[in-house]
Design goal:
By secondary structure, the protein is α/β, with parallel strands linked by helices. It is about 50% helix and about 10% strand. It has a 4-stranded parallel sheet with strand order 2-1-5-6, with helices on both faces. Strands 3-4 form a two-stranded antiparallel sheet. Helix 3 (about 60-80) crosses helix 5 and helix 11 (about 290-310) crosses helix 14. The longest helix has about 30 residues, at about 125-155.
C-alpha cells in the first residue's frame, strides 16, 4: 500500500535536480555585463576606426585596458548596491534606472582619471561617445531579455527550490510559517518528515506530514528535492548527529535551521575561529577597505569643502559679530563614535545669554532665543559649516547619523531611553548630513514616532554603507536643504 510520501510524489518535478539555479543566474549576469561592456568597446573601435576615422597610431591596447577598467568598476559598483541579487534582477524598472546610474558614475570616474592623468587627448571622442551610448542601450536591452527569461523560467518551474522539513514539532512549524511569511515564490515546501509516527500531526499549516526519514530517502529517489532543512531543537545533539549521518547520502543541500536563535538574534552568517564554527550576529561596520575609503573620503572632501566655503564662513562670522554680542562659535557636547562624547562646533544662532549648552530644551517655531542672523543660518543649515573642522579633525564624518546632544529628548523622554536601538547608531562616526536628513527627518523631535523614524534611517545607512551611497546622500543634501521647512 502506498505511503503518504508516495502519493505526494509529483512526476513533473523529475527525479533529478535542475541545472539552472538562482546562484547560476546571478553569476551569469555578472559575467554577461563584464563581457558586454568589453565587447561593445571592441565593436565600437572596429566600426568607428574601420568606417569613419583612421586607426590610432598607438593601436588598440589602450582602448582595451580602458574597457577592462570600466567593466570592473561597473561590476563592483552594481554589486555594492545589491544589483546582482536575484530579487533585484527580477525588477525591470529598478534594474534599468540603476544600470543608468552606475554606468554614468563609471564613465565619470574614467573621465576624471583621464583628465587628472592628462590622457583625455589620447582617446577618440567619437569612439568614446559611441561606446558609452551603445553600452548603456545594450545593458538595458540585456535586462529586458533577462526579465523575459526569468518570467519564462518561473512559469516552467526551473528556478523553484523544492524543500522538505524534517521535524514536525514546534520548531518545524515555526520554520514553515516563517518561510511562507517571506512569500518567496522560488521556494516550494513539499511537506514534513518525522520519525515519531503517530505522535505528530498529519498536517501543519496546510502541509502534509509525509512520513519518516526512511520515506524521505525513498521519495528523494523518485522526484526532485533540492533542500532538506532539519528543524529540531539545537539541544538535541545526539539526535541531530544520527539524523545528519543518515541524510548525508542524499544528493541535496542539507541544512540545520537556526530559526529558534534567529527569532531572537539576527544571524548574518557562519564564520570560524580556528576550526570552531561561529554564528555571525553583527559585523563591525566600516572595516578593512571600507574604513580606509571612508577615511580618505572624509579627509579629502572635508579639506576641499573647507577651502571652498572659507569665504562664506568668514562672511557668516562677521554677520554674527555685527548682529549680537558673544562668540561666533557655539560648542556643544554630543554623542560621537562608540558613545564617546565629542565637542561639536556650530555657528552661534542664539543670544549668548539664552543659549542651551545641554541641548535639553528643544528649539521651536519662532523661538525667541534665536537671533535674526541665526534664523537665516538655521533655515539654510549654514550654522553647520564649522563642523567641517570636526570632520577634518576626525571627530565626525561628512555623512553619517547626526550627532545628538547628550540630553536631547524625544517626546518627554531622553532620546537614548525612548528608543531601544538608539545607541546602535553610534557604531560609526556621526555626520554633518545623513540618510535621515535627506528624507526630511530634521527639525523638532516632539514625538517618539519621529525619533524612531530617524533611528531606523540611521541604522539602514550603517548596514548599507558604500562610497556611492555617501555620494548620493551628499548630492541629495543640497535640494533638501533648500526645500526644508521644519528647521527653526
Amino acid at each position: 500500500m502506498p505511503t503518504t510520501a508516495e502519493n505526494a510524489a509529483d512526476p513533473r518535478r523529475g527525479s533529478r535536480g535542475s541545472v539552472l539555479s538562482i546562484e547560476l543566474v546571478e553569476w551569469g549576469v555578472k559575467w554577461a555585463d563584464f563581457g558586454l561592456i568589453l565587447l561593445t568597446a571592441l565593436a565600437s573601435f572596429a566600426l568607428y576606426f574601420g568606417l569613419i576615422a583612421t586607426a590610432p597610431a598607438n593601436g588598440s591596447p589602450r582602448y582595451i585596458l580602458t574597457a577592462l577598467l570600466a567593466a570592473t568598476l561597473f561590476g563592483i559598483g552594481f554589486r555594492r548596491i545589491g544589483g546582482y541579487g536575484f530579487k533585484r534582477l527580477s525588477m525591470l524598472r529598478w534594474q534599468a534606472t540603476r544600470v543608468g546610474m552606475i554606468w554614468g558614475m563609471t564613465m565619470s570616474v574614467l573621465l576624471l582619471v583621464a583628465f587628472i592623468g592628462k590622457e583625455s587627448e589620447s582617446y577618440s571622442r567619437g569612439w568614446a561617445l559611441g561606446w558609452m551610448v551603445a553600452t548603456m542601450a545594450l545593458l538595458i536591452v540585456e535586462r529586458g531579455i533577462l526579465h523575459l527569461l526569468i518570467v519564462w523560467w518561473a512559469r516552467r518551474g526551473y528556478l523553484v527550490r523544492y524543500v522538505v522539513i524534517v521535524g514536525a514539532g514546534e520548531t518545524g512549524a515555526r520554520l514553515a510559517a516563517a518561510l511562507r511569511q517571506a512569500q518567496d515564490g522560488n521556494i516550494e515546501i513539499l511537506g514534513f518528515f518525522d520519525d515519531r509516527g503517530a505522535r505528530v500531526p498529519q498536517e501543519i499549516y496546510g502541509l502534509q506530514v509525509l512520513g519518516s526519514t526512511d520515506d524521505l530517502l525513498l521519495l528523494a529517489r523518485r522526484q526532485r528535492i533540492d533542500e532538506v532543512i532539519v528543524a529540531l531543537p539545537l539541544s538535541a545533539e545526539q539526535r541531530l548527529k544520527l539524523l545528519f549521518d543518515k541524510l548525508r547520502q542524499l544528493p541535496v543541500d542539507l541544512r540545520l535551521s537556526a530559526e529558534a536563535i534567529a527569532g531572537a538574534l539576527p544571524i548574518r552568517g557562519i564564520s570560524y575561529a580556528g576550526r570552531i564554527p561561529m554564528f555571525e550576529v553583527a559585523d563591525r561596520p566600516l572595516k578593512h577597505w571600507s574604513a580606509l575609503t571612508k577615511f580618505v573620503e572624509d579627509k579629502v572632501l572635508g579639506v576641499l569643502l573647507l577651502i571652498l566655503f572659507a569665504p562664506v564662513i568668514a562672511i557668516v562670522a562677521l554677520l554674527i559679530k555685527l548682529d549680537s554680542r558673544g562668540p561666533m562659535l557655539f560648542i556643544q557636547e554630543r554623542f560621537g563614535f562608540n558613545n564617546n562624547v565629542i565637542r561639536v562646533l556650530k555657528f552661534r544662532t542664539m543670544h549668548v545669554d539664552r543659549g542651551d549648552v545641554s541641548g535639553a530644551q528643544r528649539t521651536v517655531r519662532h523661538d525667541p532665543r534665536v537671533t535674526r542672523v541665526g534664523r537665516v543660518l538655521r533655515a539654510l543649515s549654514l550654522d553647520e559649516l564649522p563642523q567641517l573642522i570636526n570632520v577634518v579633525r576626525g571627530d565626525m564624518s561628512l555623512v553619517g547619523p547626526r550627532p545628538h546632544a547628550i540630553t536631547m529628548r524625544a517626546g518627554d523622554s531622553l532620546y537614548h531611553d525612548a528608543i531601544a536601538s538608539y545607541l546602535n547608531r553610534h557604531r560609526v562616526k556621526p555626520g554633518i548630513t545623513g540618510w535621515a536628513q535627506v528624507h526630511g527627518l530634521r527639525g523638532e523631535v516632539d514625538t517618539i514616532e519621529k525619533a524612531q523614524a530617524r533611528v531606523e534611517h540611521d541604522l539602514y545607512y550603517i548596514e548599507h554603507w558604500s562610497l556611492w551611497f555617501d555620494l548620493r546622500i551628499l548630492i541629495a543634501t543640497v535640494p533638501q536643504v533648500l526645500a526644508q521647512r521644519e528647521v527653526y
